[in-house]
Amino acid sequence: MSNNIIEIFKTITAIPRCSGTHQPFINYMKEISKQFGYLCLVDETNNILCKKENSTAQLAFQSHYDIVCLSDNCVPQIVQDGDILSAKDSTLGSDNGIGCSYMIALMSEGYDGEFLFTSDEEIGLIGANNLALPLNASYMLNLDSEEEGEICIGCAGGVDIFGTNSNKKIIPNTDNLDLYEITIGKLQGGHSGVDIDKNIPNGIKLIVKTIKECKGKLLDINGGERINSIPVNVKAIIATNKTPQASHENMIINKIDTKSEHLNIYDDKIIDFIYNFQNGVRTKNQELSVVQTSINLAIIKTGIDEIKIELSGRSMDNEDLKNLKDETIKMLKDYNFEVSTNGKYPAWKPDINEFTSKVLEIYKEFNPKASLEAIHAGLECAIFKDKYPFIKVASIGPTINFPHSRKEQVSIKSVENVYKIVKKITEDLK
Q: CA–CA separation, 210 vs 226, rounded Å?
């Protein structure tokens, strides 16, 4: 087997690895573990740990093996254009397939490390949260960062908040209100963590601004794509006697010709909540020059008898995260929503120690501009720090552009540069 990273990456990209699909990759790892002389342990949530039988490893390597699929059972078809790898009409899965490839390459060279491949990171850090495998190493190198030259030593914690409002009534249309369909799409979109400070418009907030300003009554609204994305596509049906005005150039407003004698309308407080809600960045962390606390209204859906909304809050500090959660729950309840929360993961508080300093020193041999950074997104490292308080963690990776989208791409040169650094770290920590 070639220990060329790109060849390994092409091999594992052909193995189905959408979140929720485990067995094909587990079978592959069992087979190559045997070939390279490693034990291959699998726990109940499909995490995989490969290690030598009498391992004395100081260093654990960690990547998640699932990829974001925009269509069911997608297996990316890699397109190579010079230095750039992308995929034909799908995500590439370089997040975190490149990290897995680094680990497999090290295994092919017989390195005594603990190699942890976690499951279902992209749908809620499920594998990491339920990890039941024995890690003994003192240091962990996570390979899920996406910016060459940056060594990540801290990340935001997060919580998902869900609100349901079932206040709905049928009223006679005595005011002779007109019906309108309002849609918005083709917005930029982006990751609700790392992109939250880029002034990317939120489709749900824009549509609600238009509805509020024409005193619209809400009949139906649906929008947003994923709980960790800034919403792009939204559509609403409203009743009003004041012509709605577009709040963005991508907004389309169409009058519906039929007149209704009765209107099935939802609680005005739904519109009021969204209109008044402070979406986006709440506070900045000057010391780390990163967003400290933020919240994104990601999804809104009309069901049979209720409207549901989904929000994603993040903070670099666990106390701040708790305050953000409590304040949002209170506000939702004040606006007639029933509330639940889920998907909470802790912040990984930035920690400079002998391991992070060593990683920086080695990185600078290859890239003098290398720096320690913290990011406003969730990494599995936060959970490992929580589970194993004494483990020292750093995260590195090649430059991956537009992850989770059809535009996802990675530079071969960047992948190779970072592998040289990974190898040097492994050699220096033998």
A: 23
CA distances from 111 to 11, 34, 134 (A): 21, 14, 18
Task: Please give the Cα distance from 300 to 266 (Å, whole number).
Answer: 13
Q: What are the angstrom distances between the C-alpha of 387 and each of 22, 154, 390? A: 23, 16, 9
The per-residue b/e assignment along 136-168, b for 16 or more CB within 10 angstroms, e otherwise, is ebbbbbbbbbbbbbbbbbbbbbbbbbbbbbeeb
Cβ–Cβ under 8 Å, residues 272 and 211: no
Question: What's the pLDDT band for 71 if we cut at 50, 70, 90?
Answer: confident
Predicted confidence (pLDDT) at residue 83 exceeds the cutoff of 90: yes
Q: Are 300 and 218 in contact (CB under 8 A)?
A: no
**Residue closest to 381 by CA, chosen among 93, 55, 143:** 143
Q: What is the dihedral of CA 14, 17, 21, 27, to 10 degrees?
A: 60
Which residues make Cβ contacts (< 8 Å) with residue 342, sequence separation at least 6?
159, 160, 162
Q: Which pLDDT belongs to residue 402?
A: 85
User: Please, are residues 24 and 13 in contact by the beta-carbon 8 Å criterion?
Assistant: no
pLDDT at 59: 98
Strand spans (E) along 195-348: 217-223, 234-240, 251-256, 262-266, 280-285, 290-302, 307-315, 338-345
Give residue-wise pLDDT tens across range 162-197.
999 999 999 999 999 999 999 999 998 888 998 999
- Provide the pLDDT for residue 3: 60
Instruction: Work out the number of other CB atoms within 10 angstroms of the CB of residue 93.
Output: 28
Show the CA angle centred on residue 127, arms to residues 125 and 133, nearest 5°: 140
Q: How many residues does the chain have?
A: 430
Tell me the CA distances in angstroms from 320 to 113, 178, 332, 372, one per residue in order.
36, 45, 18, 23
Which residue has tokens 């279902």? 120
pTM: 0.82
List 392's β-bridge partners, or say none: 139
